[in-house]
Each structure stands twice: as C-alpha cells, then as structure tokens.
Design goal:
This protein is mainly beta. It has two domains: about 1-50, no CATH class; about 60-170, no CATH class. Helices cover about 5% and strands about 40% of the residues. The protein has one helix at about 105-115, and strands at about 1-5, 15, 25, 45, 60-65, 70-75, 85-90, 95-100, 120-125, 130-145, 155-160, 165-170. The protein is flat. The two termini are about 20 Å apart. The relative contact order is 0.19. This is Phage tail protein. Pfam families: Phage_tail_3 (PF08813).
Length: about 170
C-alpha cells in the first residue's frame, strides 16, 4: 500500500518492481504527467502486505457506486434557457460479498477482527486467467448468519474502496 502526496497514487495497492537495496519502482504506475503528479509532491511511504487470508465459499459479488455526479447551472441572461453541466465527483465504491457461513474457516475470524479494528486492508480478487485485482478497502462484516428456508446460512462482507484498483498479471 502506498501513502503519497499525490492524491491519485495515495492509498493505492501497487507491486514493487526493479527492487534494489534502497530503491524500487511501482510496477505499472505512470507518474509522467506533471499535471496529475506535480514534481516534488509525491513523497510518501509504503507498507508491505505480509499476510493473506483467502475468502472461500463466495456465492455473490456486487460492486456499487462510482456514478459520476454533476454540477448544473443556467445563466439568467441566456435567452435559450439552456442548462449546462460539469462533472464534479464520483460516488464512493463498495464491493459486497455474500459468503456461505462457516465459522471454522480462517476468513470468518479474520473478517470479524478486521471489522472490529476498522483499519484499511488489501482485498485481492484472483481472476481465472491468473491476473489479480487489488483494492485498498475498509472492511465491514456481519458475523450473524442469515437464515432463509431452503438456503445455506450466509454472511455479508462489505468493502468500501479508498482508491482505484490495480490489476497485475501473475509473476513469472
């Protein structure tokens, strides 16, 4: 996870590349735009991910949010009464997982702990082709299983995204 003075890079999950004793590059991150990444303002720190807990028995994945919002206005003197609009911000994004309830699995206690601590964690989604998507998220976990007739008991885990995701191919 990267902490940076550059808001587009801050709180992103990135993989290191070309690592040496005291330096490394951020794989796949292009900071050449001086408009988006002003010189001298990107200093920060990195925190490595040291432990992974796989989430199994996932029966549903839903992503919501990200909708573009707009500022709209009209000018009094504009006889056409034409309204104008400009994009402002995008709504926060959330990933919601439904998992079959099993308190014996490692993810159950890991999600309970993450929910209690309320610190951001890295969520990794492995794709069938071997690529992985990485998200920095604030987790929320409902440890109480749902109980619906003729269905498995289930838990819901909600992950509030802090920044854009990063996609990487598997390492060679």
């Amino acid at each position: 996870m990267v902490k940076s003075g550059w808001t587009e890079l801050n709180e992103r999950v990135v993989r290191s590349d070309n690592a040496a004793a005291s330096t490394f590059e951020l794989e796949g991150i292009d900071t050449s735009s001086l408009i988006r990444f002003p010189a001298g303002q990107g200093a920060g720190s990195v925190t490595p991910v040291t432990t992974w807990v796989d989430l199994s028995q996932v029966t549903s994945v839903e992503k919501t949010g990200g909708e573009q919002q707009f500022f709209q206005w009209r000018y009094v003197e504009d006889r056409s009464s034409r309204q104008r609009q400009r994009p402002t911000f995008k709504n926060a994004k959330v990933i919601t997982l439904t998992l079959d309830y099993d308190p014996a699995l490692a993810w159950y206690e890991a999600l309970r702990e993450a929910d209690a601590v309320k610190d951001p964690v890295v969520l990794r989604a492995r794709l069938p082709n071997g690529d992985a998507l990485y998200y920095l998220v604030y987790p929320s976990f409902d440890a109480d299983p749902s109980m619906t007739l003729d269905q498995n008991m289930q838990n819901t885990a909600t992950f509030s995204m802090t920044s854009d995701f990063t996609r990487y191919a598997p390492l060679p």
